[in-house]
Specification:
- Belongs to the flavin oxidoreductase frp family.
- InterPro entries: Flavin_OxRdtase_Frp, Nitroreductase, Nitroreductase-like.
- One of its GO terms (molecular function) is oxidoreductase activity.
- The protein has 240 residues and is of the alpha+beta class.
- The protein is built from eleven helices and four strands.
- The chain has two domains: 169 residues, NADH Oxidase, CATH 3.40.109.10; 38 residues.
- A four-stranded antiparallel sheet has the order 1-2-4-3, with helices on both faces.
- Helix 2 packs antiparallel against helix 6 and helix 3 runs antiparallel to helix 7.
Amino acid sequence: MNQTIETILQHRSIRKFTSEPINERQCHTILDCAIAASSSSFIQCVSIIRVTDHEKRLLLAQYAGGQEYVASAAEFFVFCADYNRHQQIYPEAKLGFSEQTLIGAVDAALMAQNSLLAAESLGLGGVYIGGLRNNPDNVSSLLSLPKHVLPLFGLCLGHPAQSPEIKPRLPRSLVVHENSYAPLNREILACYDQHVRKYYQHRSGGSKDMSWSEQISGTLNKEARPFMKQFIEGQGFSLK
């Protein structure tokens, strides 16, 4: 096993940071690693907003549902699908296709993962912030995002002030299918549910007693930001 694989397998979300800044050289390296990610058809349809203004950080933390580490992290990036740049280059560009939305989301995720892996390889930590989609209109207004730019998620980065346990992921046997899709193996799922339950009990000191199946049942039993469809279309995405 090499150092790259060890870094990947040791991933855990960091939500508490020291006050130490990330130096500019490290920050530029992280951003260069993001830009080096694969790009579908070389469209390069992602923009990153590096938010350094403290007042904007405080508002973004509020918009994300009170996640204070958005304000306290050394760096905060917002990853956006961006076809506005392309329209400026080629005003006749045919935009608004659902496939373009998918490409933007996939490419943004690839860039963000490169960013976090690069940061972790430097001894830093971070956490993704999907909560920005709680208030997409406010986020877009605050960051002056024009039409054809879609804010997808944020990324906090900084020097870790905690070392949480690694959260157990689904076993390979439930995730990887060979040649065709396989039915759910409930015996393996039950073992995994017990593993997750023990993880939560240990992490919470016994105050959280929940399996993964129970967790996703609660999550998928409620609306998932139903306002996003209107917002996405309003930004000129997924119109056809």
